[in-house]
Amino acid sequence: MTVSLKNRSFLSISDLIAEELSHVLSTAAKQKKGKMPQVLAGKSIALLFEKPSLRTKASFDVAVDQLGGHPIYFGPQEIGLGQRESISDVAQTTSRFVQGIIARVFTHSSIVELTKHSTVPVINALSDGEHPCQALADLLTIHEKKGGLKGVRIAFIGDGNNVASSLAQGACMLGADFVIASPVGYELPKAVQTTAKKSGGSFLQVTDPKDAVKGADVVYTDVWASMGQEKDSAQRANAFKGYGVTSELMALAKKDAIFMHDLPAHRGEEVTDAVIDSKQSVVFDQAENRLHAQRALLSLIFAK
Fold first, then answer.
1. Threshold 0.85, pTM exceeds
2. Among 1, 70, 138, 266, which residue is least crowded by beta carbons within 10 Å?
3. Peptide bond into 264 cis (omega under 30)
4. Which tens digit of pLDDT belongs to each residue from 89-144?
5. Distance CA 281, CA 161 (A)
6. DSSP letters spanning 182-245
């Protein structure tokens, strides 16, 4: 089948079918070894960020530049989506100046509304519902380290958050076996579980981290309290006691298992120094792959 993402927005990993997702990953792998197509020459891309960022801002800024485009960054104080100005007005105005919008927002409804009123493609650089660009980088990393996704057991330890939601759907779409261990009340949303189960691989939600990690090829964790959840930090820290990834927990996985974290990490909480600094850790390869995966996505959306 012919795969084309031209002029499409990307809000959720489920916006792609398996063939399209595979095409993004293969494009990223090829671009890592060769020249970058100058598909954004003469084009400007707006980065609308309600939340501060290191990896997301840097990787998208560099990706746009490498494709020949001009990134324009708008930070939290300059946007005020729905406060300083309506989301509709921001979308319609920005669309007159740029050829694409990359948005990092607090609520998923904001990026849906932004896309509704935009006349240019919109890319979700993070929302409370999903983090699809992180999932692209994660899947690229697993593919590189494990030679593919089919049959790979991925154990996610922690909160059923936006990162886990995107990764679960994407991994299952490519034939992986995804299992997530979360405390009661912090599981993946039912809608995400349903989508993952129907995607092609296998999905399982459990409560015991040991059950998830046994025989895993990949062990993944994330912070227990995401940005915007700071007021719940103490409650979450109590709920997630016993969910930290330690050397003892990693020992239950396969000997050649890799450790992943989307960063920033709260060392000593969800992961120990011994694990994140170990030879099994691929967190910085994973971070670098944000650039390669996102560049591939942009090159396909803005293909000439």
1. yes
2. 1
3. yes
4. 999 999 999 999 999 999 999 999 999 999 999 999 999 999 999 999 999 999 99
5. 21
6. --TT-SPPHHHHHHHHTSSSEEEEES-HHHHHTT-SEEEE--SS-TT-GGGHHHHHHHTTT--B
